[in-house]
């Protein structure tokens, strides 16, 4: 398993939709290969309350609040 961390500064805010998104190029990934975690205040990680969309060229992660995200990529 591989991990990739993204900070809340990596998220894009969409005022019209009142949400934050992170777009990840698909390459060889699929939604079923990913687990999305949020970073807690104590530095640990737990399941993130996000929506994950499988788009043509990207995987889009949508959240209503800015959070630090860790992606676990399953082998």
Write the layout of secondary structure elements.
Layout: E1 2-6, E2 12-14, E3 19-25, E4 34-39, E5 45-47, E6 51-54, E7 58-63, E8 69-73
Antiparallel strand pairs: 1-8, 2-3, 3-7, 4-5, 4-8, 6-7
Can you tag this structure with a few keywords?
75 residues; mainly beta; globular
How does the helix and strand content classify structurally?
A: mainly beta
Strand content: over 45%
Alpha-carbon Rg, integer = 12 Å
- Tally the helices: 0
**What general form does the structure show?**
globular
**Gap between N and C termini, in Å?**
5 Å
Stretches where pLDDT is under 50 for at least 5 consecutive residues are none
Strand order of the largest sheet: 1-8-4-5
Largest sheet: 4 strands, antiparallel
Strand runs, count: 8
Tell me what you see in this structure.
This protein is mainly beta. Helices cover 0% and strands 52% of the residues. The protein contains no helices and eight strands. It has strands spanning 2-6, 12-14, 19-25, 34-39, 45-47, 51-54, 58-63, 69-73. The protein has a four-stranded antiparallel sheet with strand order 1-8-4-5, with no helix packed on it. A four-stranded antiparallel sheet has the order 2-3-7-6, with no helix packed on it. β2 and β3 (19-25) form a beta hairpin. The radius of gyration is 12 Å and the shape is globular. The relative contact order is 0.38.
